[in-house]
Specification:
12 helices; four-stranded antiparallel beta sheet; alpha+beta; globular; Epoxyqueuosine reductase
């Protein structure tokens, strides 16, 4: 009865805080993911993302992150916008339209944990959103929130894939959900549409070939062989999500902090080309886009525009 009560409380709190889905899995070692992660690293598909090489064991076992962990709570938070930036300009991934999602969702997770502490009592738990060695898509799939598609994104039948994934790991036993089944079928839209052929086979993405990697993670000069293949993306890339049939069910988010930053949302290509470091620092101070730093964004803009 206690597990049932605590589970109901957690799912109600997730809904109150605006998460579109909440699933719960039993904490333990991710046996199926271990060889996949090992193969990914062995083939150097991480590129310069060296942080993926660290904490191998922790990525596969949440009990190494939270003592006596019993449950992994997976949460989805919608970021699909009601309008997209001009097709005549350079392109920014939709997740970066508004305020940095780390800030927004961390605030919600802190409130979530505070509620659990006040209601359940003395618990040991940690909350994460894309900031720790947690295989978030694997845990979300294990808890029934969707399946990992051929583009390696988590996909959900009713809402697509334009959402952030967060986790809370707790030392509290709960009622556990069952995994969802795969509904990609024979579709290869994402594979066929990837501008850089980063989806090297169904369900396998070579991170070192992805436009998001090039425009955000790579600190060196962009490779000349990729010239003309970025399709005007200067921060991230949404192609494999935009073409996914399941995203026809995406609905606009209701999060005010994710509304587009109007300071840049109507920029023309000339505006982007003329951007100064002062304008960058002011415009993107609360945005995920600041991750590239001014030099990185300028490099991307000049590369896709043909200046470099």
């Amino acid at each position: 009865m206690r597990e049932e009560k605590h589970t109901a409380l957690i799912k109600a709190e997730a809904k109150r805080l605006g998460f579109i889905s909440c699933g719960i899995s039993k904490a333990g070692f991710l046996e199926e993911e271990a060889p996949r992660l090992e193969n990914f690293l062995k083939q150097e598909m991480q590129g310069q993302m060296s942080y993926l090489e660290r904490n191998f064991d922790k990525r596969l076992d949440p009990t190494l992150l939270v003592d006596d962990a019993k449950s992994v709570i997976s949460l989805l938070y919608n970021y699909y916008p009601s309008e997209v930036a001009s097709k005549e300009s350079f392109k920014i991934s939709k997740y970066a339209y508004g305020e940095d999602y780390h800030h927004v969702i961390k605030d919600k997770l802190k409130e979530f944990l505070d509620t659990l502490q006040n209601t359940i009592g003395a618990i040991n738990g940690r909350a994460f959103v894309d900031s720790a060695p947690v295989l978030e898509k694997a845990w979300a799939a294990k808890s029934g929130l969707g399946w990992v598609g051929k583009n390696s994104n988590l996909i959900t039948k009713k809402v697509g894939s334009f959402y952030f994934i967060a986790e809370i790991i707790l030392d509290v036993a709960l009622q556990y959900d069952s995994p969802a089944s795969d509904h990609c079928g024979s579709c290869t839209a994402c594979i066929d549409s990837c501008p850089t052929q980063a989806i090297v086979s169904p369900y396998v993405v070579d991170g070192s070939k992805c436009i998001s990697y090039f425009t955000i993670e790579l600190k060196d000069n962009l490779p000349k062989e990729m010239k003309g293949k970025f399709d005007d993306w200067i921060f991230g890339c949404d192609v494999c999500q935009d073409v996914c049939p399941w995203n026809s069910f995406s609905l606009p988010h209701q999060e005010p902090r994710f509304l587009p930053n109007q300071d840049w949302f109507s920029y023309s290509k000339k505006d982007w080309l003329d951007i100064t470091e002062e304008v960058f620092s002011k415009t993107f101070k609360d945005s995920a886009i600041k991750r590239t730093k001014f030099e990185g964004l300028k490099r991307n803009i000049e590369f896709v525009s043909g200046r470099k």
